[in-house]
Amino acid sequence: MSEYIIDSHAHLCDSRFDEDRQEIIDNLEKDKVKLVIIPGTDLESSLAAVDLANKNERIYALVGTHPHDAKDYTNETRESYKKLALENKKVLAIGEIGLDYHYEYSPVEKQKEVFIDQIELAKELDLPIVIHSREAFEDTYQILKDYAKGMKVLLHSFNETWEDLTKYLDLDFYISLGGMSTFKNADNLVRVAERVPIDRVFLETDAPYLTPVPHRGKRNEPKYTHFVAERLAKMRVEDLSYIKEETNKNTMKFFGIEDGR
Asked: Structure pTM?
């Protein structure tokens, strides 16, 4: 059984890692982190993620525009993502894309338009999509149901209810759980974690954000994925190594990563 873990979503290109980014990557073996997947949030971060992935064996990249940055998305951005995906084997999916109604840094209608366009891009490229959805369940669900049925879809940093999750499971979608599942007030995620089929779950940090207990208040980083796995194992009353093994397997199968990298 596995001691290693996969962090399926970490923003290692964030400026908060500028001083020790390579050190963190160099320590992944020591920290028992098998792989780290870095999402794009705009063109600049997507380019940086691909560059980092091409230079480091354990790193993979996603390319895409986050809903916060939807206002800056153009056809040229789309073409750049397409080129990155076609020319780099370490680009695994289009992401993170979706809707965010908490801040509305981009107008809602623009968010929807860009979300749908990037789903269509993923279809063209035959790639999975990784979804960000915050305070936007109904619209996210409807767009995914209308435009992404039959695709490989991952709801990253899932924080909805069990009832909401059942709708996504009916569409054969996946979720990833992160630091929020360790928070004291995450009652909705306890129910989700206990009931979700194990073959539908990934683990993540969303570093540098959402640091899990017992390190809340510190910068999050990939090695803290182990704490998420420990919490999930306790909630499900299952063996920790089994949780790591199964979630690793799910991640690699979903993204089409060959074992042994």
From this structure: 0.97
